[in-house]
Amino acid sequence: MFYRLSGIHHTRYESASQLWPIPADRWQVYALLALALAAPLLVSDLYLTSYLLPWLIMTSAALSLTLLMGIAGQLHFGFAAVMAIGAYTSIHLVRFGLPFELALLGAGLMAALIGGVFGAAALRVKGLYLVMATLAMQYLVDWIIVNVPAISGGAQATLQTPRTTFLFLPLHKDEVRYYVALLWVVLVTLLILNIKRTSFGRALVAVRDKDFAAAVIGINIVRYKLMAFFTSSFLGGVTGAVLAYCFYQAVTPEQFSFNVSIQIVAMVLVGGLGSVLGAYLGAAFVLLVPIVLTNAVAYLAGLGLLSASTNLLAHIPLMVYGGLIIGFLLFEPLGLAKIYDNLRKYFLVWPFRHARS
Amino acid sequence: MAPSRDGAMTTKNSEAQGRGVVAKHQNAARDRVLVCESVSRWFGGLQALKEVDLVIARGEILGLVGPNGSGKTTLVNSITGFYPPQQGRILFEGQEIHRLKPHQIAQRGIARTFQNVALFKGMSVLDNILLGRHNFMRPSVLGSLFYWWWAQKEEVRQRAKVEEIIDLLQLESVRDEMVEYIPLGLQKRVELARALASEPRFLVLDEPMAGMNQEEKEYMVRFILDAHEALGLTILLIEHHMDVVTAICDRLVVLNNGVKIKEGTPHETINDPAVVAAYIGKVNHAA
Ligand SMILES: Nc1ncnc2c1ncn2[C@@H]1O[C@H](COP(=O)(O)OP(=O)(O)OP(=O)(O)O)[C@@H](O)[C@H]1O
Ligand SMILES: [Mg+2]
């Protein structure tokens, strides 16, 4: 964060449109990636599988949804259902005998197809009605999964993920599960970043911001909205499969309930609509803050500083958490990513104020 | 160049000058880029366009004028597919376009700007103009995923094209600014740049100089003339500034209450008693 922009001159269009045109930013990213690769050596297994792993996977989910909600501007309140389709598809495909790599592809395609069909239905409507349409998808998919034993293995059933390998590595090993999740989040991150700097992303944003102006330069609005639904659902489907195999190692319908959909939407909003960094920050916030709050409340209660009924104690973290989210949206509607950006700009021009980077 | 200021519309000099009606432009031998045949459009009970006929010849700059609410923008919206005519036909280069969607019409080679600037906020000037190249790009998810082997070459090639337009319209200094932070006059120029980026053969400009001061107007006039010449465009120009219209248009068409009341050379048109009456009537009405 402590560097200046002076002396950085791009002389080729290629270098000017790099993902991180500023060398210092680039080195930061490389350093983070190196840390992520070394994580299994640096942190305990418990940390790796119960903090880092879900964070990476939910970040992938938030990134998938950010493509649809942030970049293409289409609300989706049934994204967990999309992930459920991917999860169940991948399990059944592997049980059927397909290699895991292909099952992932199948999971994405199935989710994209069904998600795309709902998207097509939802294209005619906007705003609240779109929310209703995607909610309908959530409940319809939930209902079908629970009530069709061929999919769920019967109501209340838990399907264990079959033993399998990824690129010849055994998928039940902790490190392998971690690296698969890491690989996926890196892929999704690169995809979203690249979409944002290419014609596809520009067209999506154009349709989101001013559809009539997009039409007048030849953009087929319906087609691009559909492509957004399709792509985002594909990513969501694969993420669902990764979640099932790498984190839960089993699936039940509750893992993909409406609550989860809301959580993913919260990640996107708290992190900052349309921001890649925001998806990481938002996922961390939504996953970690409840844990931290619960521990903090328990700690304070243990010290005798908080005396209340256990019932109330259980609800305090939820209340604070809800308040925090609302506070964030009021205080900085562009989310955590924007807060980071403000900080960064502040230091870039420090000690001068009010200058733009 | 300074636009000539002769013949301001508000002059009371309303002597009939109905001589020599533009014979050369009605010469059937010339290429007819756009033809409107008795185009009508209603909004509820209001008829915004009443059987409007219009022919625009290749290479021409046609001025479309008329008092507020006379249907100019509606005619443009009919041509570009936003409010398709409920009666009549519109042909572009001999082919019917009035049943096509706006993006299909754009793909045929018609570009336009909007009366109220319609740029994409939150994007840089450069990205806005790059969007104008949409028709020449093949956006795809896989292309984006494999950016370094696939999309990059195309992005760079289109970027080079965009730089030519930035050059032509002298937008270098604001290239990387967010469009919402630059002055309105420049925003209108960026919108012109975005329209030009799509390499149209027919360009529709809806009040490109609204809200500009004299200097900005003169710049804009020059850019329009430059583009007209450099790109071999045919232009339909809606403009309230009569000095501009008379200076750069080959011909004028006057709408009033959705009816075409006059068509001819700029000079004879703005001195036509019916035209003057339409404007003055409107002024009294508004007062
Ligand atoms: N979408 C619409 N719905 C209803 N009425 C409309 C619509 N668009 C235009 N009109 C009406 O059609 C008539 C013509 O409007 P139009 O915008 O074409 O006028 P204009 O000549 O462009 O005027 P101005 O010089 O103010 O831009 C007006 O009476 C207007 O109120
Ligand atoms: Mg108008």
Structural description of this entry:
The complex is a heterodimer of chains A (357) and B (287). By secondary structure, chain A is mainly α. Chain A has helices at residues 13-16, 23-42, 45-71, 79-96, 100-122, 127-147, 149-152, 174-196, 199-209, 211-216, 221-248, 258-271, 276-302, 310-331, 335-349, and strands at 159-160, 165-166, 169-170, 250-251. In chain A, the strands form 2 sheets. Chain A has a two-stranded antiparallel ribbon. A two-stranded antiparallel ribbon of chain A has the order 2-3. Chain A is globular. With 287 residues, chain B is α/β, with parallel strands linked by helices. Chain B folds into 2 domains: 33-109 and 200-287, P-loop containing nucleotide triphosphate hydrolases (Rossmann fold, 3-Layer(aba) Sandwich); 125-199, no CATH class. In chain B, 47% of the residues are buried. The chains are: A mainly alpha (357), B alpha/beta (287). At the A-B interface, helix 8, helix 9, helix 10 and helix 11 of A face helix 2, helix 3, helix 4 and helix 5 of B. Residues 72-73, 115, 206 of chain B line the site of magnesium ion.
